[in-house]
């Protein structure tokens, strides 16, 4: 089987010739590339995509092509540097300004938000409403076609596809303030989310003209913040209606999930999500991969490698990794509906 055939077999519920191996190496690659510490076999690679091809893995990634783009934003965004690796970004609109502060952390090679744009809901939620109402997103078919041409038989690309209303509020207000907003300002949230859903569905219809098979919601599913109560109130219909929309047209809908998932099993099953990308098994998460595959009869599991495994170094690393992989693969037989990946 080619990598593409292998992955399509799994996505359609069949048994592949071997387990697809599709690690998410983006952050790892960017860190080591910037610090000149890539292993010799990847030292000439310029991009994450180059590295995946050099590793000859089965490419199944949401990072390599992002054709959903903001195409019209009738406001001004200004970023100014602060001390060190910290910066402030301000969004200036006719109805007010939202600003955020972020810091790039070189040790982990990621960006942390120190101050979210929405701080005072009375003042800031109307501005956020205006931003969502007046922003337009679209699907860039040329970008997608170029990526598909490069990919060929090396795998399948996932389209990173918006987020649920809950994650939308988390992005703008942070998880703590966002949770208070969701609990205390239901009418305002309903107005905001109604407009947001219209934007999402517009792009979903545009995406149907592409060859894309798999869409992935960028939700960071975690029951600590995506509680069953909040999902039932704000996101259940969003997940379910979007899954139905794609299923009726032969597409699949995943979500990224990187936290505690056990109490969300019923929600995941009942909304019809086809799989989760990045499941963190214990001790980081609370759901084993072989349990996740039982969520429903078509459910596809992506995961197997977490920081708990990848942090092991030194002479004991190789036997540890082989023993771990053998134990995991024994539990995941037969290998249908399983993609060995990063959690």
Written overview of the protein:
The mean pLDDT is 96. The protein is globular. Helix 4 packs parallel to helix 8, helix 6 packs across helix 7 and helix 8 packs parallel to helix 9. With 343 residues, it is α/β, with parallel strands linked by helices. The strands form 3 sheets. The chain has a 7-stranded parallel beta sheet with strand order 1-8-9-10-11-12-13. A 4-stranded antiparallel beta sheet has the order 3-4-5-6, covered by helices on one side. The chain is built from 13 helices and 13 strands. The protein is 41% helix and 23% strand. Strand 11, helix 11 and strand 12 form a beta-alpha-beta unit.
Task: List the topology elements.
Elements: H1 3-11, H2 26-34, H3 48-55, E1 59-61, E2 68-72, E3 76-81, E4 86-93, E5 96-105, E6 110-115, H4 121-134, E7 136-139, H5 141-151, E8 155-160, H6 165-173, H7 175-184, H8 186-207, E9 214-221, H9 228-247, E10 252-257, H10 265-271, E11 275-279, H11 289-292, E12 300-305, H12 307-310, H13 317-331, E13 338-342
Parallel strand pairs: 1-8, 8-9, 9-10, 10-11, 11-12, 12-13
Antiparallel strand pairs: 2-7, 3-4, 4-5, 5-6
């Amino acid at each position: 089987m080619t990598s593409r055939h292998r992955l399509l077999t799994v996505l359609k519920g069949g048994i592949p010739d071997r387990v697809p191996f599709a690690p998410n190496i983006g952050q790892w690659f960017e860190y080591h590339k910037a610090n000149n510490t890539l292993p010799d076999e990847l030292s000439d690679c310029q991009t994450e995509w180059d590295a995946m091809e050099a590793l000859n893995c089965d490419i199944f990634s949401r990072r390599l092509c992002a054709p959903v783009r903001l195409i019209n934003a009738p406001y001004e965004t200004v970023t100014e540097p602060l001390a060190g690796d910290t910066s402030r970004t301000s969004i200036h609109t006719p109805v007010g300004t939202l600003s955020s502060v972020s810091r790039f952390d070189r040790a982990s090679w990621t960006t942390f938000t120190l101050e979210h744009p929405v701080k005072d809901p009375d003042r800031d939620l109307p501005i956020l409403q205006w931003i969502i109402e007046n922003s337009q997103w679209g699907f860039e078919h040329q970008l997608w076609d170029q990526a598909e041409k490069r990919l060929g038989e090396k795998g399948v690309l996932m389209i990173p596809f918006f987020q649920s209303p809950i994650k939308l509020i988390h992005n703008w207000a942070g998880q703590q303030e966002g949770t208070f907003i969701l609990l205390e300002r239901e009418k305002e949230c309903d107005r905001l989310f109604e407009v947001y859903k219209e934007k999402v569905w517009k792009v979903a219809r545009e995406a149907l003209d592409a060859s894309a098979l798999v869409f992935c919601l960028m939700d960071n599913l975690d029951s600590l913040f995506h509680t069953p109560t909040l999902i039932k109130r704000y996101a259940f219909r969003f997940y379910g209606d979007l899954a139905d929309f794609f299923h009726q047209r032969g597409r699949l809908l995943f979500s990224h999930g990187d936290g505690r998932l056990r109490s969300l099993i019923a929600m995941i099953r009942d909304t019809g999500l086809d799989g989760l990308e990045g499941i963190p098994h214990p001790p980081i998460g609370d759901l084993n991969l072989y349990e996740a595959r039982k969520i429903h009869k078509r459910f596809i599991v992506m995961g197997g490698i977490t920081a708990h495994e990848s942090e092991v170094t030194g002479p004991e690393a190789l036997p540890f990794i082989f023993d771990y992989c053998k134990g995991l693969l024994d539990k995941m037989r037969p290998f249908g509906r399983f993609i060995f990946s990063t959690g």
